[in-house]
């Protein structure tokens, strides 16, 4: 019998670079568990918005900190290959992707106690097996010893267009300019915050997918997986 080692793949990068699409594809192709760390920050943000902890343009940190103790955010897999974020028994996957949540998630995720809370959960979700996790600080802070680290980039125009198309397909009327503005604001806050800012880990492989198809990204990772781990997918 072959002993299968635990492998963690960390996928970090700028907003809307297609990290989750890529990570889901790798998870499916190679049989890894996919975990979306950004969804956790979005879940905390939704909870804060729905419970009046964001008002007058500010986050009520004194109210949010104790509220986290009773917050049950976790992932469920309905069996169709998707992973959905739940708050207790409520599926919140759709609600966490709105522009309102996107507008507040970077300030919320810059709060140190929020980062500690999310990191603890990410560690507990990934206790066993092979895991691929995407985010901003997975290869630098959450799993600094990850067996494989990937850092994703793409041009601003390509990223904004992808995000705009995604929102438009869901019937969201947000303009291209607003999408671009939100993307740049998040890039700035995510990479300038004090706690665990977005940056490329020194040992990360860079993937600039501005001009790549998903199939080309797959071929790229297949080469890496075979070379690093001898895994064919
Ligand atoms: O991947 P995403 O766009 O869904 O992430 C939403 C926000 O969450 C992102 O703007 C910054 C924050 N985030 C973070 O700070 N650290 C992570 N590991 C993942 C996301």
Description:
This protein is of the alpha/beta class and 233 residues long. It has one domain: P-loop containing nucleotide triphosphate hydrolases (Rossmann fold, 3-Layer(aba) Sandwich), CATH 3.40.50. It is 48% helix and 17% strand. It is built from nine helices and ten strands. It starts with 7 loop residues before the first strand and ends with a helix. The model is unreliable at 1-5 (pLDDT under 50). Bound molecules: 2'-deoxycytidine-5'-monophosphate. 2'-deoxycytidine-5'-monophosphate is lined by residues 15, 37-38, 41-42, 105-106, 109, 135-138, 186, 190.
SSE arrangement:
Blueprint: E1 8-13, H1 19-30, E2 33-36, H2 37-50, E3 54-55, E4 58-59, H3 61-68, E5 73-76, E6 84-87, E7 90-91, H4 99-109, H5 112-125, E8 131-135, H6 138-142, E9 148-153, H7 156-169, H8 176-192, E10 205-208, H9 214-229
Parallel strand pairs: 1-8, 1-9, 2-8, 9-10
Antiparallel strand pairs: 3-4, 5-6, 6-7
Helix pairs in contact: 2-4, 2-5, 4-8, 7-8
The structure holds 2'-deoxycytidine-5'-monophosphate.
Small molecules bound in the structure, each named once = 2'-deoxycytidine-5'-monophosphate
Largest sheet: 5 strands, parallel
Helical proportion, percent range? 40-55%
- Known CATH architecture: 3-Layer(aba) Sandwich
Q: Compute the number of structural domains.
A: 1
Q: Work out the radius of gyration.
A: 17 Å
What are the secondary-structure elements, in order, as H or E?
A: EHEHEEHEEEHHEHEHHEH
Q: Class by helix and strand content?
A: alpha/beta
Tell me the β content: 15-25%
Please give the number of β-strands.
Answer: 10
What's the CATH class label? Alpha Beta
- At the fourth level of CATH, the homologous superfamily is P-loop containing nucleotide triphosphate hydrolases
Low-confidence stretches: 1-5
Please tell me the overall pLDDT: 93
């Amino acid at each position: 019998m072959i002993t299968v080692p635990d492998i963690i793949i960390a996928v970090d990068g700028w907003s809307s670079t297609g990290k989750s699409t890529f990570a889901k594809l790798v998870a499916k192709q190679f049989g890894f568990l996919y975990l979306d760390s950004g969804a956790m920050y979005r879940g905390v943000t939704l909870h804060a918005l729905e419970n009046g902890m964001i008002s007058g343009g500010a986050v009520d940190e004194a109210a949010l900190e104790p509220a986290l103790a009773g917050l049950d955010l976790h992932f469920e897999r309905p069996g169709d290959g998707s992973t959905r974020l739940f708050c207790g028994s409520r599926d919140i996957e759709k609600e966490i992707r709105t522009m309102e949540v996107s507008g507040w998630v970077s300030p919320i995720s810059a709060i140190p106690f929020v980062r500690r809370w999310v990191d603890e959960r990410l560690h507990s979700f990934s206790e066993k097996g092979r895991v691929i996790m995407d985010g901003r600080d997975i290869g630098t802070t959450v799993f600094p010893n990850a067996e494989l680290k990937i850092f994703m980039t793409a041009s601003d125009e390509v990223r904004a267009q992808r995000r705009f198309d995604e929102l438009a397909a869901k019937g969201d009327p947000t303009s291209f300019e607003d999408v671009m503005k939100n993307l740049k604001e998040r890039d700035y806050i995510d990479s300038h915050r004090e706690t665990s800012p977005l940056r490329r880990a020194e040992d990360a492989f860079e993937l600039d997918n501005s001009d790549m198809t998903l199939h080309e990204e797959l071929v790229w990772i297949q080469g890496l997986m075979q070379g690093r781990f001898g895994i064919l997918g």
